[in-house]
Amino acid sequence: MLSKVLEIAKTIILKFTLITISLVVLFTGILFPTQSALSLEKSNSTIANLSSLSWKPIDGIPQGAQVAVLNGNTTKGASEVMIRLPAGYTFPHHSHSSREVLFLSEGEITYIADDGNKQKLPANSYLDLPSGTKHSVLCGQNPCLVFARYEQPFDLILSPAPKTKS
User: Fold this and answer.
1) When comparing pLDDT for 17 and 133, which is higher?
2) Does the record carry Membrane as a key word (predicted)?
């Protein structure tokens, strides 16, 4: 009888040890990835310091707005950019062939829809505009900084501004 109890105890201890070793190996791989996993992760990452970006004017609109590419290629496919607008700047009425995702990180803007309705948006506002959405933007009393993502090559299709509503 005692030998049977010892046999069962050995089996339980052996299973517990195997499970413990398996869990340690699994969690060590998750919590402390190998160098190759870190390298792979770094190769797909983009890290940018906004103060060292290469800012360029945006062609086809009044001088003042600037753009800096963070990721992608604006002429060939998807891209992510930062857009800088001086205080009081009006970005002309326009649309894009691509969906446009915007995040206002600094400043305050007035978003003007194609029907003339206006909406004031403070810093930390998010906009997701389907392709072809006509709109314009008025930057408030302080400079504005906007993150923008486009799923297709960047284009700027200018259109007449609507009569604005209060």
Assistant:
1) 133
2) yes
Place of tokens 């691509």: 98
Which residues lie across from 110 on neighbouring strands?
120, 138
Q: Which of 92, 94, 52, 47 is nearest to 71 (CA)?
A: 47
3-state secondary structure of 62: coil
- Classified as helix, coil or strand, 73 is coil
Domain boundaries, the chain: 2-43, 50-158
C-alpha to C-alpha distance for 22 and 1, rounded to whole angstroms = 32
Q: Provide φ and ψ at 80, rounded to 5°.
A: -125, 130
In angstroms, the first-to-last Cα distance of the chain is 91
| Upper half-sphere CA count for residue 28 (Cβ side, 13 Å) | 7
Q: What is the Cα Rg of the chain in Å?
A: 27
- For residues 45 and 156, what is the distance between their CA atoms, to the nearest angstrom? 28
The helix (run of H) or strand (run of E) holding residue 59 is: none
Whether this prediction's pTM lies above 0.90 is answered by: no
For domain 50-158, give the CATH superfamily. Answer: Jelly Rolls (2.60.120.10)
